[in-house]
């Protein structure tokens, strides 16, 4: 059963269209990520779905009931929770903050106390119950926001980039607790983020937004490995994106000419068709020019390293092989290969590693 549907949603500001969503349906118990760059419309869509924006066209349905027609916005909002990027806490104790939603719903004191302490424990902040909200760190304050949001046992919880201002260790620990509580309490969650790693970790379904429209909707595997267009490919981590023309189609293997370089890929596209080729950096293998690598990879090129970018535990290597390629390599491998700008190196990747998008 769908818990929430959005139909014909349109939002305009000062003559500019912010959102144009034809149909969006979230089913019971789903954990869905809305991803996209800044300005894609993620927050605006969450605000509309939670009825915090009212000046829009279209319909919001909650369990088949149209909000503002079959059910009031007030009744609907009592069944949902929202957690913002910056914690919005009352200037009182942690206990009182977590209890606030329950008090608004007229829970008796005994039941309220039981539920508050249950959720303080769920988010690891029971020791902070008497602390004033203004004395908390950013991570502690966000834990209080989550405990308060979960305490009312909402039908849907909306999360608007709740980890963006946190350091990595704090974010990782908080994400682990959030994942566990969503799973344990079987709450439907809609999570907005511009971080694809957060989306991959948190959700079972990803909706990609760009310029206010849904451009792809599917499982994490579909979106990340089978992007529908060049924008999604770039956003999903396909660092190498090349335009070309199919010149041959034989037995499920197509050959594409890109700037005079021939690339083999798995697919069924007729010759003369224009295509976009997308390759993940982790699928490209680098090795010395002098080394004869025994590999099943159909695509092998000699290239020159044009740029080396350190990225934590690995390095991002930019190559010119007649076509531009981007590869990831571990720091230890980079040291062994004596990686540096200007040296020649071999690069290879399998035909199955090339994602083909018809133009």
What does this structure look like?
With 359 residues, this protein is an alpha+beta fold. Helix content is 26%, strand content 37%. The chain has helices spanning 42-49, 73-77, 94-104, 109-122, 138-151, 168-185, 196-202, 220-225, 230-235, 331-336; strands at residues 2-13, 16-27, 31-35, 57-62, 65-66, 80-83, 156-160, 188-193, 205-210, 213-218, 240-250, 253-258, 261-266, 274-279, 285-287, 299-311, 314-320, 324-330, 344-349, 355-358. The strands form four sheets. The protein has a six-stranded mixed beta sheet, with helices on both faces. It has a five-stranded antiparallel beta sheet with strand order 13-12-11-14-20. Strands 15-19-16-17-18 form a five-stranded antiparallel beta sheet. Helix 3 packs across helix 4. The longest helix is centred in the middle third of the chain and has 18 residues, at 168-185. The mean pLDDT is 92.
Number of domains: 2
Counting DSSP H or I runs of 4 or more residues, the number of helices is 10
CATH topology of the largest domain: Rossmann fold
CATH superfamily of the largest domain: P-loop containing nucleotide triphosphate hydrolases
- The CATH architecture of the largest domain would be 3-Layer(aba) Sandwich
Number of strands: 20
| Radius of gyration from the alpha-carbon trace, in angstroms | 25 Å
Q: Are there runs of 5+ residues with pLDDT below 50, and where? A: none
Provide the helix percentage: 25-40%
CATH class of the largest domain: Alpha Beta
């Amino acid at each position: 059963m769908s818990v929430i549907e959005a139909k014909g949603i349109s939002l305009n500001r000062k003559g500019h269209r912010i959102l144009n969503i034809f149909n969006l349906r979230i089913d019971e118990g789903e954990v869905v990520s809305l991803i996209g760059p800044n300005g894609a419309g993620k927050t605006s869509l969450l605000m509309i779905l939670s009825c915090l924006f009212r000046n829009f066209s279209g319909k919001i349905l909650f369990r088949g009931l149209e909000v503002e027609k079959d059910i009031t916005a007030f009744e609907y909002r009592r069944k949902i929770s929202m957690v913002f990027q910056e914690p919005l806490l009352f200037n009182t104790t942690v206990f009182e903050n977590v209890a606030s939603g329950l008090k608004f719903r007229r829970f008796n004191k005994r039941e309220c106390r039981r539920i508050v302490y249950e959720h303080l424990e769920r988010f690891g902040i029971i020791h902070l119950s008497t602390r004033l909200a203004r004395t908390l760190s950013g991570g502690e304050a966000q834990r209080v926001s989550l405990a308060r949001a979960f305490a009312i046992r909402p039908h849907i919880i909306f999360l608007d980039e709740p980890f963006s201002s946190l350091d990595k260790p704090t974010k990782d620990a908080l994400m682990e607790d959030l994942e566990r509580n969503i799973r344990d309490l079987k709450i439907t969650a809609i999570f907005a983020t511009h971080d694809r790693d957060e989306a991959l970790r948190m959700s079972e379904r990803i909706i990609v937004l760009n310029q206010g429209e849904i451009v792809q909707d599917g499982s994490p595997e579909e979106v990340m490995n089978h992007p529908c267009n060049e924008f999604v490919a770039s956003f999903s981590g396909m660092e190498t994106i090349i335009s070309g023309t199919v010149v041959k189609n034989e037995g499920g293997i197509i050959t594409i000419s890109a700037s005079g370089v021939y690339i083999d890929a798995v697919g069924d596209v007729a010759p003369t068709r224009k295509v976009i080729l997308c390759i993940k950096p982790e699928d490209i293998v680098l090795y010395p020019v002098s080394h004869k690598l025994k590999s099943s990879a159909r695509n092998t090129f000699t290239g020159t390293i044009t740029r080396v970018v350190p990225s934590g535990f690995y390095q991002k290597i930019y190559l010119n092989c007649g076509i531009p390629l981007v590869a990831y390599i571990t720091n230890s491998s980079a040291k062994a290969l004596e990686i540096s700008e200007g040296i020649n190196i071999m690069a290879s990747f399998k035909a199955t590693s090339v994602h083909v998008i018809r133009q």
